[in-house]
């Protein structure tokens, strides 16, 4: 039997270097540049555009899917926790459709949104990775506030919080994905307000 | 000044021929074959695959966008009118998420759905054409039933019917477009039932 010493000796891991975050940003910027110009993302192109070594890229991201999911998330922010005291309805509306959506539209153009949807519809693995590592986290502030309001008796105690979020967010996705209408249009905003109003009535404890 | 007689004489329109519908189906089948195999749709390829002449294709569809929108709609059916007498809640649920969605899943595979979303996200003109000529029509039975129920006092009289539809359909789109979960999964169906329940409570006249 032949020994294969090379495989038995673990390569020593290089200690974390201070510039790791900068390298990460360079690679994600390069990925985003490729996404925005509708080019295929390959490690070679990322090395060329970012100047970061192939080894460093592989060290940071276990798969290209994870890397693209991270890139698609640039410019998206997790909203701060929502105050359950005060006007809960207004606070949740704002978090879902208000300032956050306008801010998102500035940092995350509609064309990038449309491109993200195309990429995830073409690749379910990427879709699930993006969902697990990014979308789920962004849902937390609203979901936490809904649970807190349920326990206080403000909202009905038998709500399915995830389904409520899906419904409220789904109404906004419908505008962009099915109607093809920008969120900023006054008639789109009016529809979202009416949608929120109906769902909210259904959530309030009777 | 030069006369341009050729432009002044209108070419005689050929009378409608009995086989027009067959030709139409041949062209749409060819378009769908190209869509499903992820090839670009060109008139030349359609002529080659369908055997229908270039002139006949141009005569039937004013633009390639209209043609692709028609092809994307194959297998989608407009549901029959919804009975407002009887269990309206159940009838609307069935029309939106029930049999129709299962039937649609058989005739209109999820992979074609995902492909349709990619195409419309890449081309807003196609998205708007598909919305105007197809999606809007499919909404009619549910929207009519909601209006009738509002006028009878079963549902709240101040509902925005379009927003209600967007919300109910949006919850289903969210499963497919954001979560990436097939509608058939038991946990997906449970979420849709919970979503419907909450929205319905918000729509019922209090």
UniProtKB/TrEMBL annotation, chains A, B:
SUPFAM superfamilies: Homeodomain-like, Tetracyclin repressor-like, C-terminal domain
Domain HTH tetR-type: 28-69
Every Tetracyclin repressor-like C-terminal domain range: 102-184
Domain of life: Bacteria
Keyword Metal-binding recorded: no
Keyword line: DNA-binding, Transcription, Transcription regulation
Protein name listed in UniProt: TetR/AcrR family transcriptional regulator
Native species: Glutamicibacter halophytocola
Lineage: Bacteria, Bacillati, Actinomycetota, Actinomycetes, Micrococcales
């Amino acid at each position: 039997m032949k020994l294969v010493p090379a495989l038995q000796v673990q390569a020593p891991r290089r200690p974390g270097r201070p510039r790791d975050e900068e390298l990460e940003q360079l690679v994600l910027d390069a990925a985003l540049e490729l996404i925005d110009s509708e080019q295929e993302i390959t490690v070679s192109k990322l090395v060329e555009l970012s100047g970061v070594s192939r080894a460093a890229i592989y060290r940071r991201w276990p798969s290209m899917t994870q890397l693209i999911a991270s890139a698609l998330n640039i410019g998206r922010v997790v909203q701060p926790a929502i105050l359950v005291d005060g006007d809960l309805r207004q606070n949740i509306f704002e978090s879902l459709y208000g300032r956050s959506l306008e801010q998102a539209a500035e940092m995350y153009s509609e064309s990038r949104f449309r491109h993200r949807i195309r990429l995830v519809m073409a690749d379910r693995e990427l879709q699930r990775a993006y969902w697990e590592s990014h979308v789920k986290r962004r849902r937390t502030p609203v979901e936490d506030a809904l649970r807190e309001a349920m326990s206080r008796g403000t909202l009905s105690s038998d709500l399915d919080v995830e389904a409520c979020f899906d419904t409220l967010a789904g109404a906004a996705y419908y505008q962009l994905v099915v109607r093809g209408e920008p969120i900023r249009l006054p008639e789109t905003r009016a529809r979202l307000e009416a949608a929120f109003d109906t769902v909210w009535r259904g959530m309030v404890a009777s």
